[in-house]
Every structure is written in C-alpha cells, then in structure tokens.
Specification:
With about 280 residues, this protein is α/β, with parallel strands linked by helices. Helices cover about 40% and strands about 15% of the residues. It folds into 2 domains: about 220 residues, 3-Layer(aba) Sandwich (Rossmann fold), CATH 3.40.50; about 35 residues. It contains 8 helices and 8 strands, in the order βαββαβαβααβαβααβ. It has a 6-stranded mixed beta sheet, with helices on both faces. Strands 2-3 form a two-stranded antiparallel sheet. The longest helix has 25 residues. It comes from Promicromonospora kroppenstedtii.
C-alpha cells in the first residue's frame, strides 16, 4: 500500500535539490472537497476573497519541481466548496473530475458529516469508497486524508473520527491509494495553527498539511520540520481563555447552529474557485 511511509523510485541522474529526490510524474491534479480543501482562512495576500489552502500549496510544490526538472508546469483544478458534506461532494464534483482526466486526485472530506448529530460514519465511508473506486478505475492516483484529532469542545467527535479513519486506511489498502495522516500530525495539536473558528487552519497550518501531503505521495517535504510542534506557549490566564471561548461561541458556534436550524450552508451560491485545469500557478 502506498501511504505516508511509501516511497517512489529515485530519478535517474543527479538531483539538483533536496526536494528533487523523487520524480513528479503527475501532470494534472484535481482537488475535490469542502472548506478544508478550498483553503478557508488562508486568503491570497493579493486577492483576499480567494482562499489558498493546502491543496493550492501542494499544487505549487509539485509544479515547481516539474519546472525545475525541465517539464511543463502541473495543471491544476480545485473544485472544493465550503460547507459540503461527503455525498454531495461526490455527486457534484466526481463527474467533473473524471471529465478532466487527471492523473492525481485528492478527495479529503467527511468532517461536515461527522459534526451532524445523525452522522452514519459507515454510510459516509461507503460513499467515499465508491468515489475512490471510480477514480482508481480511471487510472488516477488518489490522495485521501484522515480526520483531525479534536480537543476541548469538539473532542466528542473523536470516537466518530476514529472509526472514519480506520475506514479510510482500509479503503486505501483495497484501492492502493495514498493517505495524509492528519490525525497523527503533532503540529496540529496546537491551537495556534488553527483559525479563530477552531475548525479551519491558519496559513501556517495549511502549509504544514501541504508538506504532509508531499510525504503521503512519497516525496520529500519542502520543509523537514513541517510536523515539529511549536515552542510551548505561556499559559493563558483564566479570564483570557474565558473571553476567547465566549467570542468563539458568539462569532462561530451561534451562526453554525443557525445554519443547521434553517437548512442553509456557508457554501450556498458559491462555485469552485479553480473549476478548469490550468497551468499552475495561474498567471
């Protein structure tokens, strides 16, 4: 099975940089998913309304290595839309992905499902497996991701996430897919790499995940220290922690509950940011 411990053949001839120790054979990459893959809370500095995120960063790293090796840039599309659950992701994005004929696809999703009270983890996993089977049958390599290990107010999800993760690894074994082990990343245990909503990463967090994705694909990371935990933070005063928790409830939990009660989603009316594969990075 190809996973985070897998390796790819070494390229023939001398290497010009540490990150060129394995060939980047993929020519077209399509990212499927929800807000995590859309890149929420990681805006482009010159276009703050457009999110970057780990998948854009991964595409940039793969493309840079292709260009350094004298190959054409990687072609890349990102179909992810915030708020989507796994089965709608498959229904809305799989057809377009197959039509694009990529040789690499990332499908990292399921978190929005797991947060629902009525989540059926095995049914979610079955939908994921069906999508992976179709992608692998098309000849594309597939990169999946485990769920995160949550703390504090979201720790109640860890039992569900653990079952989902076990299913992800089983699917990867059956279909020879890659897995980025988000659950096992030590650096993500620190709240400082999470945004104020506590369910999306900061730009630093997204960059760390992009490096983990390179490793999951059998490549060297751009930064060997991508999973080194941050230096210990000074303990926060009780009043400061209470103030932060109150702000989180008011600014993020309240609106999330309201959307659940009204049957709306943060992704309603939104379309994919990069719907058509094109040379990456875009001009």
């Amino acid at each position: 099975m190809r996973n985070v411990s897998a390796t790819t053949p070494e390229p023939e001839g001398p290497s010009t940089s540490p990150t060129a120790t394995a060939p980047v054979r993929w020519t077209r990459y399509v990212a499927m998913g929800d807000s995590f893959t859309e890149g929420l809370w990681d805006p482009y500095p010159d276009a703050p309304d457009v999110q970057r995120g780990w998948a854009d960063n991964l595409a940039a790293a793969l493309s840079a290595r292709r260009i350094a090796a004298g190959e054409d840039p990687l072609e890349y599309a990102n179909l992810a839309i915030r708020g989507r659950k796994l089965r709608p992701i498959v229904a809305e994005q799989l057809g377009a992905t197959l039509d694009a004929k990529p040789d690499l696809v990332s499908l990292v999703a399921g978190g929005n499902d797991i947060l629902r009270a009525t989540a059926d983890v095995d049914a979610i996993s079955a939908a994921l497996e069906d999508a992976v089977a179709q992608l692998r049958a098309s000849g594309a390599d597939v990169l999946m991701g485990t769920g995160f290990k949550a703390g504090a107010a979201l720790s109640w999800t860890n039992g569900r996430v653990g079952i989902f993760n076990a299913n992800v690894w089983s699917i990867a074994r059956r279909y020879d897919a890659h897995v980025v082990d988000l659950w096992g990343m030590r650096s993500l245990a620190d709240l400082r790499v999470w945004s104020s909503d506590r369910i999306h990463l900061t730009p630093e967090g997204h960059q760390r995940v992009a490096n983990a994705a390179l490793v999951a694909l059998g490549l060297e990371p751009d930064d060997d220290a991508y999973d080194v935990p941050l230096d210990a933070a000074p303990p926060a005063a009780f009043r400061e922690t209470a103030r932060a928790n109150a702000a989180w409830m008011r600014q993020h939990v309240g609106p999330w509950v309201k959307r659940r009660l009204t049957g709306t989603s943060s992704g309603d009316g939104r379309s994919a940011k990069w719907p058509t594969p094109g040379a990456w990075p875009r001009a």
